[in-house]
């Protein structure tokens, strides 16, 4: 069944879980017999009067989805921007729902949403038709840039739009000036990114982690004898050999360095 939706799906879609057709608000009755005037909803499995099952104009089968489940199905499809591909929720039926199918069968507010989306889609197919970009304005009109220039002015609210960039008009700037400013801003952003990257690379190059506590330490002089400011561990900068302890440089000398270190005993000039 295509239209089965649970409480979790309703919450994910931003809808109240009270809309769940399978909730406890309806009292379950016994299953209908062929002679009763009731039937079971294929979506919520509730036993309801046949009068609560809308008959859709485009479908030839017996209706098996109650009005509440149908409305929930339509609302879900509208919320996921699938308004023009809303199919009948009945299993095995792929008939797309039209204006005639939904009118008088779902709540007026829901039908009006469907109708508005349909109308806006039709208007978009009209050459040179543009919708106003102002927040809260749903108006639109035909604008021929070849005749009226690149400034769209909404006849309803007066909001101005640059038709070249499809944004609120850039006051005080020509399109060329706007493009140049945006280019310079983009270059500056890239420059800052490059500087940040170079700074990180520099830090990585001149800093190492303490071999004991892993605090990052930056070398700021020529001496390779380092002391961690956090744990006070003393070590040699180039090979991390410890200065103190039974295996430290102060105890056993240059042989404490790693064998590849230039200060290891075997690597010193003889």
From TrEMBL:
Where in this chain does the record put each RING-type domain? 37-268
Among the GO biological process terms of this entry, one is: protein ubiquitination
Task: Write down the chemical reaction(s) this protein catalyses.
Answer: [E2 ubiquitin-conjugating enzyme]-S-ubiquitinyl-L-cysteine + [acceptor protein]-L-lysine = [E2 ubiquitin-conjugating enzyme]-L-cysteine + [acceptor protein]-N(6)-ubiquitinyl-L-lysine
Which of UniProt's keywords are assigned here? Metal-binding, Repeat, Transferase, Ubl conjugation pathway, Zinc, Zinc-finger
Q: Which Gene3D superfamilies match?
A: 1.20.120.1750, Zinc/RING finger domain, C3HC4 (zinc finger)
Stated EC number for the protein is 2.3.2.31
GO MF, any single term: ubiquitin protein ligase activity
Q: Per its UniProt entry, what is the enzyme's top EC class, as one word?
A: transferase
Q: Per the record's keyword annotation, is Repeat included, yes or no? A: yes
> Domain of life of the organism in this record?
Eukaryota
InterPro entries documented for this protein:
E3_UB_ligase_RBR, IBR_dom, TRIAD_supradom, Znf_RING/FYVE/PHD
Name this polypeptide is given: RBR-type E3 ubiquitin transferase
